[in-house]
Amino acid sequence: GAVVSQHPSWVICKSGTSVKIECRSLDFQATTMFWYRQFPKQSLMLMATSNEGSKATYEQGVEKDKFLINHASLTLSTLTVTSAHPEDSSFYICSARNPRYFYEQYFGPGTRLTVT
Amino acid sequence: KQEVTQIPAALSVPEGENLVLNCSFTDSAIYNLQWFRQDPGKGLTSLLLIQSSQREQTSGRLNASLDKSSGRSTLYIAASQPGDSATYLCAVAGGTSYGKLTFGQGTILTVHP
What we know:
- The complex is a heterodimer.
- Chain A has strands at about 5, 10-15, 20-25, 30-40, 45-50, 55-60, 65-75, 75-80, 90-100, 105, 110-115.
- By secondary structure, chain A is mainly beta.
- In chain A, strands 2, 4, 5, 6, 9, 10 and 11 form a seven-stranded mixed beta sheet that branches. In chain A, strands 1-3-8-7 form a four-stranded antiparallel beta sheet, with no helix packed on it.
- In chain A, a hairpin with a 5-residue loop joins strand 4 (about 30-40) and strand 5 (about 45-50).
- The model of chain A has no long low-confidence stretch (mean pLDDT about 90).
- Chain B is mostly beta strands.
- Chain B is built from no helices and eleven strands.
- In chain B, strands 2, 4, 5, 9, 10 and 11 form a six-stranded mixed beta sheet that branches.
């Protein structure tokens, strides 16, 4: 199946700093990528839809100024958590939609963010 | 608003048993339905995708069915193995090819030797 990578796989940062997470589709061009957040023992919550060359669409309740999304190319989307706080600690997962196969979504391995 | 429910929340079976995981959704106007597997601390692995016009898909020991009119899907796992232990998530995509995925809460499966 298609491969989506995320970097870093885990990161620890201090409160008040910013952290950037990268999501790459390795073997197909993805005009649309998605960012999810997952708390322990819970399902995935969609944060935003990232569209190549345009502004991201955020879900209700997600602060767009805190979670900056950039989709500058057909294979790369980035999520920047600005002025991170301990409550931002979570597992962040991206996915990319493959237009060549019924728009099936392929997920990255996730990034564990811990804010101290 | 689409809602996806998975039953049971957890399931523990002995190795070798055949088992069924259930998924129901409230809005039948879906584009496709996907079943995923998630191991602890890991991302999601796509298992099967069923288009809205299809009734079932098979991959190895896995078979997924879709009854769009009743808003139900099942994932059948044959001859379960300890390596099948994971959380299984069902997700439906909205009514167009641009539809977002809505996830169920998942079923935690444990297959013991």
